[in-house]
Amino acid sequence: MSTEDLLLRLQRDLTPPSGAQGRIRTRLQARIAAPEALRATKALLTPTSESKRVIWERISASLLAHRAHGFLVELRGWLSAPEGVRAFLWQRFSAELVPVQQTRHMFWGVKWVATAVLLVFVTQMSPRFFWASPSAALSETMLLPHGDVSILVDEVWQPVTQEVTLRAGMRIQTGEDGQASIVLSDDGVVRLDHGTMIDLVDLSDRMEPASELVPTLSLYTGRLWMQGLVPANLRGLTVYTPVGLVTVNGGSVSIGGEREMRVAVYDRTAQVTRSGKNLPLVAGEWTVLRAAGNPSAQKLADGSYQSPWVQGNLTLDAVHRQEIAALQQTRLAERARILPTSTLYPVKRAVEAVDLFLTIGDEAKMQKQLQHADTRLTEAAALLAQGQTGAVALPLEEYRSTLVALATGSGDATLAQFLLKKVVSQNASDLAATLPGDQAYVLKQAVLETSSTLADGVSAPEDARDSMLLDALSVLTQAVETGNLKGLPDMWTQLSPQLQILKGGIDALKPEVQREASAALAMLALAFDKQEEQGQMQKVDPILLQQISAYLPAEEAPILSESDIQLIVAGIRQRIFVYHLTQARLNQFTQELKLLEGHADQGRILRRLYFALPGGPENFPDRVRQEIIRLGWQKASQS
After folding, report:
1. What SS3 state is found at 612?
2. CB 579 within 8 A of CB 495
């Protein structure tokens, strides 16, 4: 018998008849089906909707009771006065609790005492509901590594691959393919180039003037870039080098070298200190620190702003400043809590009044008043954050009037000046990164103007005025350079008060401010020329343009006609592009600039040349731009 026949026979023998299959299925289903008793039990045990509701009401009532009990226990802790307050209240109100014959008077006395006690309790609880705890500046210093970066820990170099918190005393090193950024809380940022080693020395908050120069960090090898966001009247960021100190408050500086340290300022100002002598530098100047000899300021060479190191860091500086400005406004707004637009605001002010009334001692009362003035500033920040710009005038005016009243009051003048200086310094630091165009600049302006009006001058009026002027010039120039002409009218309306000082001439400013303002005005004029060349000036109101032009440097008296200027520019262009190699063109360009030196129409020729020469690998427009800046500095120094 074959295998196939055997399988067919097995299949026939093992397959049950159809009747047997039906009987087996019936028996199995009978066994699987639940007995009637179980089905009845299920019906009895299933609760009805009414019973479910009753059970849930009992359970929820029990839960609410526990919650209420916990809340009352917590509330009792809040309302329990400290032992010292209890003794003070008993001493103050015990006379009112003496029994008298007339029930009516006793009732009113007890009622008055109960009201006073309730006010004290509300005052004690008020910080929880109405005031936020004062926020100090962000104290953490963070390291952001890029590539090969190490920190010295227990005499062993440990590689860093992610963001870490730093502390004073740490040593940081970048390798040949590594860079690092160090965020110094709100005060600024330090960027380390390849092959750089530094020590962190002092990372404390800068809430006081610089009585002495305490290094923030020490630079031993390599190169770093530092951007400062510290008010001018406070202790700045100081870099120690073996050949001198470099201090930055508001500005950007590059420091580096081996045996000699090259210090170049690219924004605002910096100060070099060597052998007890100070050398102030402004944007566009540099110096060299050596082991011997006194440093001197020099103008940056043409094309210095075009290097990748400078351009990259200036771009990062702008982003970092905007981030810090937004963070500072947010932090102020979060401290405000209840705002003048809230229905609970009268309660907040009543609590402040009671809190001040119950404060004992002149110094404590003055601190409370300063705290309330700071609250007005935070309320203005919160109103700005909510878009209610029209409501900020009142709290800012109250902020100013409170500080001025304390400065001119009849109390301890020395104590008042000390406390005022402290609070104004804190407020200025909280808004140091803000510039015109930022939402919170109105707060910074209020702080600067208030500080300049305080008795004995917490901040010199000229410093506040100069700071706002340079802020305005910087933002106005940037707006025109980027072609933001649509927003120019609103910006001009906002900046006009700061620019009024220029009506008296540049000579009314301090020398370092004169140079910086002159360079900014020259760049503003060049930006307008650029927009005019591109046909964009039709978007500007002629009356507005005339108002702005009144502040710009006067055009040189024309010696040559416009056609003569165009012929000179065309000749320069032709002589440059006779050559085909980049270096040969640059050499001819340098020679042409030397020939223009001292020309009566040098400024006009350079402005026309700025638009006549193309970019390309030689980057001629930027080189001409630097020459115009240099010429402006030269004329400012000779005036």
Report:
1. helix
2. no
pLDDT, tens digit, for every residue of 32-41?
Answer: 665 666 666 7
Per-residue pLDDT averaged across 291-304, rounded?
A: 79
* Residue 317, phi then psi, degrees to nearest 5: -60, -45
Query: Residue 211 pLDDT more than 60?
Result: yes
User: Measuring CA to CA, how many Å separate 128 from each of 102, 268, 314, 335, 371?
Assistant: 40, 43, 43, 12, 15
**pLDDT tops 50 at residue 375:** yes
Number of domain units in the chain: 6
The letter for the amino acid at 592 is E
C-alpha distances out from residue 67 to 54, 61, 62, 72, 390, Å: 20, 10, 9, 9, 43
Averaged confidence pLDDT in the chain:
78
Q: Using alpha carbons, select from 230, 314, 300, 238 the residue that is nearest to residue 271.
A: 238
Taking alpha carbons only, the member of 617, 251, 239, 604 closest to residue 432 is: 251
* Residue numbers of the domain that contains 374: 306-453
Residue 417: pLDDT over 50: yes
Would you give the DSSP letter of residue 139? Answer: -
Token pair for residue 634? 């030269």
Residues 371 and 516 in one domain: no
Q: Is 521 part of a structural domain of the chain?
A: yes
Looking at the structure, do residues 314 and 405 belong to the same domain, yes or no? yes
3 state SS of 225: strand
| Concatenated DSSP letters of 165-221 | EE-TT-EEEE-TT-EEEEEETTTEEEEE-TT-EEEE-------S--SS---SEEEEE
pLDDT 10s digits, 500-525: 777 666 666 777 677 777 767 766 77
